[in-house]
Amino acid sequence: MTTTSPIIVALDYPHAADALTLADQLNPQDCRLKVGKELFTRSGPVVVEQLQAKGFEVFLDLKFHDIPNTTAAAVRVAAELGVWMVNVHAGGGRRMMEACRETLARFNGNRPLLTAVTVLTSLEQEDLQEVGIDIEPMVQVQRLARLAAESGMDGVVCSAREARALRASLGEEFKLVTPGIRPDDSAADDQRRVVTPAQALENGSSYLVIGRPITRAEAPAQALAQILASL
Ligand SMILES: O=c1ccn([C@@H]2O[C@H](COP(=O)(O)O)[C@@H](O)[C@H]2O)c(=O)[nH]1
Predict the structure, then answer these.
(1) pLDDT averaged over consecutive 10-residue blocks of the chain (231 residues)?
(2) Domains annotated on the chain, with CATH
(3) Complex ipTM over 0.90
């Protein structure tokens, strides 16, 4: 089932049973689901297929980052799984992203969205400095997003803090997938470039990735409903 909801719930659980229990409390009309490294490393493609069988579109968030041949092969296998979105790291460079885009050509119209991570939402300027990037996150995000667009990506993963600038420079069709979403009353946890759900949409985000504010709530379905009502 396809939905118009912008919410993607991050199923960061160690076991498939936890993810499937949460999925049973949610409605595919209200959100998509994200399978990341923890859940996939334990449960693999089976849990993706189980979530899809429940009617959810799945974002496979494995952030592939390797040489072009290896990354493109991984993207192709993700496409064969029938996921709705798959991603790579923009830092893998132009040739890596182009190889991923080219490998999806064989799927014609029936392919996943392909997005590229710019600067993780857990990073701030000091973190970038420590790894030799002496510019503000906003500037680095803009640089990588432009490269991603030129390399044929459907969009990028960034903070909603950068969404307004990217929307203006890269147009309405370019997907802006924004984690680091925190309702006013939620802890930031390890996230640094955080934005509220309503502000993220106002800034031009296409999709809001939300994990702990929903999955660690006493009543996750209610937490999702409150967020949807706030939009
Ligand atoms: O820059 C990024 C890229 C991916 N993520 C992922 O999104 C969720 C966020 O979870 P919260 O619990 O809402 O913090 C998580 O799965 C990350 O791996 C991100 O946070 N930032």
Answers:
(1) 94 98 98 98 98 98 98 98 98 98 93 98 98 98 98 98 98 98 97 98 98 98 98 97
(2) 7-230 (3.20.20.70)
(3) yes
